[in-house]
Design goal:
heterodimer; A: alpha/beta; Dihydrodipicolinate Reductase, domain 2; 9-stranded mixed β-sheet; 3-stranded parallel β-sheet; 33% helix; B: alpha/beta; 2 domains; 29% helix
Chain lengths: 415, 351
Amino acid sequence: MLGGLLEHVKYIPSNFDDPAGYKALAELLEKFDEAAGQPLNRAYYLSTAPEFFPVIIEQLKAAGLHRHPKVDVRVIIEKPFGHDLASARSLQRVVSGVFRERQVFRIDHYLGKETVQNVMAFRFANMMFEPIWNRNFIDHIQITGAEDLGIGTRAGYYDQAGALRDLVQNHMLQLVALTCMEPPASFEANKVRDEKVKVLTAITPPDPADTVPAQYTAGTVGGEDVAGYLEEEGVPERSRTETYAALKLEVQNWRWAGVPIYLRTGKRLARKVTEIAVQLKPVPHLAFQSQGSVGVQPNQLVLTVQPNEGVSLSLGAKIPGSRMRIRPVNMEFLYGSAFMSQSPEAYERLIMDAMRGDATLFTRNDEVDAQWSIIDPILEAWHSADGPLPNYESGTAGPANADALIGPGRDWRKL
Amino acid sequence: MSEDVWHERDTTPSAIEAALRGLLARRYQQDRAFVPARVMNLVVIVERAFRGEVENRLARVGRYHPSRLIVASVEEKRTELDARATVAAEDTVHKPGHIAVGRERVEVEIGPQQLEGLDTIVDPLLVSDLATMVWAPHGHRAGVDALRRLASIVLIDSLDEPDLREAFERAADLTGSAYVVDLAWLRSTPWRERVAASFDPPAMRGALGAIDKVVVRHRPDSTAAAVLFCGWLASRLGWRPSALSHRRDQLTGHCRARRGEIALELRPQEMGAPGLGGVTIEMASGEAVSLDRGPGGLRAVRRARDGGEQTWTVLGASRGESGILGEGVRQALLRDPTYKPALEAGRALVG
């Protein structure tokens, strides 16, 4: 199969701003059409440094490659879509000057993950959760995107981006949107994206006091000593780039008013895990004695995106014996064990969807705008702050002041 | 029992965790009746040369086995991290409703210098959202301290510490961050239960206030269990304990109660299993309750005011030393509110 595919793969070397390269590309596409006996759909996949996106898009237009009278022409754009609200809007002006929105497929590969799509399946294919999925029953939501690795050889990119841009603006806000959106009338692309945009626009940027940036210092990971961020190769000596970000958000609508949503992400944390944890409120009255047992804990529903993909629900259960003692137990569903077939890689799914023209799992322009509208004020507040950035030791759960963000009375889930 | 095994030299915790996930998925593919146990993580830190002895003890815990067992085997001069992961399950009996309960085990071989960062090795290997118990039968305090942020329960055996005062200080320190299951305490459980039962009848409850002497007989290496037993009595009955002192080969002292002093005697005696050998509680009236190990259970003697004695056997009162570790694992998920006050009183008794 790969051999058959590779026979049709052609390589055209060119500079991004060289019209001759686009002319050669146009000629090659015509040859493909001739060989097929009919015009074929086109998809241009921009996986370059973001500063070249406008250049390439303008050149596609100049070469007349952005439209075709008989077939669909699409452009797939990799993240990051801008580095702040102004740059995202500027890029969008270039994109929308050349392509119609239905031609644009902005990739956030998290949306291609099975477990992320399962958030929708889980919420909207099961009757039991909808009645409790609101402020009356949910105490708070925690979304974690933790990595045990450092920045590796990506200092050049990462020091410009930081944790907030790298993970929160895109992946984590997508998880917030999927967790909090209203049920769409159908899974048609724009209907799903309309609902996500409603959630994102209902989030007001958090007060700087409800945000925690931090940077990792030297420590131990996996039993090995590791360097701090400032000692990583290629990182500027006095860099204030955050490698950890924690935020408290609120979705200001009827369903979610008063339910805090805590986000945290970071490099060099204790373990790699991405999860959405929904904590329900405690029962209003407890008829059981808690003495002699761990006691009754509020139910917690955890949707693990990676690495151990699945869903677990904690319940209080009676400990076998002559006394009425309760302890938490888990009901668990694991992808790796419930489904024997191999899940497609996120990119397999997304590239296939782009080729089919299904934009459900791609980010629409107004989503990007809404995401940056939440993030931009935080970036501004962090950049204008003086003094040293809080830090955390590599291999730990993050900075101490992140505990103050979630507490008192609530705790971050153990990493 | 059949098992799937993975092993790798010079590996990483991430690779081990990925291998475990792979082993579990393979198990499911092989056997739809497979169900991984999901009750508790147990992390055991052992000296590699003596791990066989610990293996034997773990093999005897029977139905109280942990869901995921992580053995950190410490070896002098080792610098690399080697690991072996096993997913085992009972062989399937193909009938409706049958499940094959699985057990997961990871052995990581580490050097002593890795103990201080042991949490960063163990953390990715734990099953999330389960209680985690740590046990270090060969000491390895640095390893236990490193794991304190992960451990909700620490299993100790105060009998293992040569210095009783230090053993209790360590236990008290650990109770600050985790629930402590002390095997020395569990060895006194059947005695505490029977003593409590002896004074449970309404006619006997008044005698609790008249206790004037307690004698505890114990194996010479089990002073900790005897002190904890006295600490339990003191904390439950509101006695103020004073430091015990050595008199010949035994410890003696007293507690102060509202109605006077209670004499304490801790007498070592030769016996097979560790723990207590007997307890006698005497009242000022001349009444006494006495319990001693005997064939098939505890031999109980109740002496009346007139000196008359009633004797009987409390059948099957103890799980015995072979079951003590399993009992420790079982107790890990309960919360015994009487241990900490007993430990505090025990600390006062050892001065």
